[in-house]
Design brief:
By secondary structure, the chain is mostly helical. The protein has one domain: Orthogonal Bundle (Cytochrome-c3 Hydrogenase, chain B). The chain is built from 10 helices and 2 strands. A two-stranded antiparallel ribbon has the order 1-2. The longest helix is centred in the first third of the chain and has 29 residues. The chain is globular and about 50 Å long.
């Protein structure tokens, strides 16, 4: 996964003291990190729901996951073991206007699948009975075991390195994002956190795409002409307003 590549690149850049937080390639890394987060959470939730006995979310999740893996393949040639990030750079070969347009269309449309999965599972009494109060982790145990991610946040511990000035990476410090906490530390809390993180990842994708495109105001006219950027959002909203 590209997040593992990102960790390697950050290590190399830290050693070379060439870390950047605002470059274009850094923002594209954030874009793929968040797409990877959605991909991983979809796999976790769909397989979990299948184990519990609900099959529908598996098909919805893997349909969206297939589209995400297609983005991997388009930029690196590999669906899972991608080689896209480079220290202080990325592979620009597969990046073009059409690619970013497809990503923006995916971000716009995937809300439907995420909502379907969320509604089907949260209204299922069998799902709740097998998750609520199961696998609870206390605040103290989370620290003792050195947990991270949704697991440690489900216990109520505010641990997300994207929010720490001393540990943040890429361009997260300059984005508007939220992190979510649980109360009981059980499996149901972890399910809710993963769902909300997927919605938040889509929000971050929109922010990154917005940073990579022009806003169309007077101050950006020269910038738009110089770099010949394409305003994806203008196209999306125009397409959305078209009558059927």
């Amino acid at each position: 996964m590209m997040t593992q590549e990102h960790a390697f690149c950050i290590a190399v850049e830290s050693l070379l003291k060439t870390t950047s937080y605002t470059s274009i390639y850094v923002q594209i890394r954030v874009l793929f990190d968040e797409l990877t987060r959605v991909m991983n959470h979809l796999l976790a939730l769909s397989c979990h729901s299948l184990d519990v006995g609900n099959m529908s979310p598996l098909f919805w999740a893997f349909e969206e996951r297939e589209r995400l893996m297609e983005f991997y393949e388009r930029v690196s040639g590999a669906r899972m073991h991608a080689a896209f990030y480079r220290p202080n750079d990325i592979d620009w070969t597969g990046l073009n206007h059409q690619f970013f347009l497809d990503v923006s269309l995916f971000a716009r449309d995937c809300f439907k699948s995420l909502t379907e999965i969320f509604v089907v599972l949260t209204t299922n009494n069998i799902w709740k009975s097998r998750l609520v109060g199961v696998g609870s982790i206390t605040f103290k145990d989370s620290l003792s075991y050195g947990l991270s991610g949704p697991v440690i946040r489900s216990s109520g511990l505010k641990k997300d390195i994207r929010f720490l000035r001393s540990e943040t990476y890429a361009s997260y410090w300059f984005l508007s994002l939220n992190s979510f906490l649980g109360k009981r530390g059980d499996s149901y809390d972890r399910f809710l956190i993963r769902v909300r993180e997927m919605y938040e990842s889509v929000n971050i994708v929109f922010q990154v795409l917005g940073n990579l495109t022009t806003s169309g105001d007077e101050s950006n006219k020269g910038f738009e002409k110089k770099h010949d950027f394409f305003s994806f959002f203008n196209f999306i909203y125009k397409e959305k307003k078209k009558p059927n």
